[in-house]
């Protein structure tokens, strides 16, 4: 690779760091460079001095193809560059063959952030040129927000880029229509990312032919129908969130043993979490929130000892009562979000034994009984929402724990909760914060109980509707941070597995 491009490891690190520097509301796929000796290309950095000394040059037909591709995206300036592989612009990568002829292996377009220097697109007239099919060594295509004002289907001719293409990323481009089945011809794909376009129709069953996929992101579209029974042996990330998918979650996904992240949130899925998911021993994040799941958690989920985030908010769950040992075995769990899932009965004591927990949301349910006393042992807990339940009895938290959580401790709308005067609970509260509960054995209701529909946020008492809006924003930021952490882990695991 020429010196104008980073060495392989540096490229990976820069791509990853760039994903962390983007706004919190955005997450990007990390594209993994591949060092396979495909098409007899010579891997490794090639200095400009070596190119000049050895008479290196870009293959002529590929250079003309790049000119066409650049013109199609509104970058006519590229035709003034006499050698595109030696022109030193970001967004193009080349590699030499044994005869020191350079071939185009990666093209990237779109302004990811203010710090990136990929060629931008003219969104009013850009399109994907068929000249891409004249790049026989192309491994990565990346287009971001390039066709927003000129919506067009994904061209079927991209299916002709087999067997070289490994990473196809078409994010937020306004693509319309169904996902073309021709993509299934790209049997060397490792990353397929079609996030936030306007795709409709069903997910092509033929995508199951892409046995080498490590990341499949079809989120933020208008896809309908059911989730196919995929079984990708090396898949790490499966994101189908924010679509219109229906039906049950296929149990065959348990045959994707390398899964680290599953995100099916904000669809119309029904039924239950498959019992077979207990075999996903590498799973770190599972987000099934805002669906129509109506059955209790399977017993097998207790065996997911690598799971760090379980997010099921907004599923009806059919008046579920959690078993005392419900979460035994989930030793790595850090985030548990079960808000508004129609939970009944007491809070399981097994939660208090998960010492890695940092976030617990059990609000908006029908939980009764007392808060387990072993919750005081959750030293890493930084956020706890138990509001809007039917809990009773004393709160088992002292001054230090309450001070640590402060406004992230939500207990209001539990008319039976109280705190012991000697516990130090009240001492840990911010002077402007109303916890919504009063002293145990108090002859008169605390004034806090008369304002259960209010909560203090940023030093002010705000109506419950505003409170819920603020809580939703905060929860979104928590989830985004979790997704960024998951992407970091995916990046690391993919890197070391090569």
From TrEMBL:
Pfam families: LRR_1, LRR_8. GO terms for cellular component: plasma membrane. It is found in: Cell membrane. Its main location: membrane. Coiled coil: none annotated. The keyword Lyase does not apply. It is a single-pass type I membrane protein. GO terms for biological process: detection of stimulus; response to other organism. This is Protein TOO MANY MOUTHS. The lineage of its organism: Eukaryota, Viridiplantae, Streptophyta, Embryophyta, Tracheophyta.
